[in-house]
Amino acid sequence: VKIAVEKRDDILQRNGVSLPVEFIVATAENAIAIPVNAVADREGDPHIYLVTGNVVHRQKIRTGIEDGGMVEAHFSWNGTDRVALTNLRSLRDSTVVYPLDAGEVRR
Question: Cα(85)–Cα(70) distance, rounded to whole angstroms?
Answer without folding.
Answer: 12
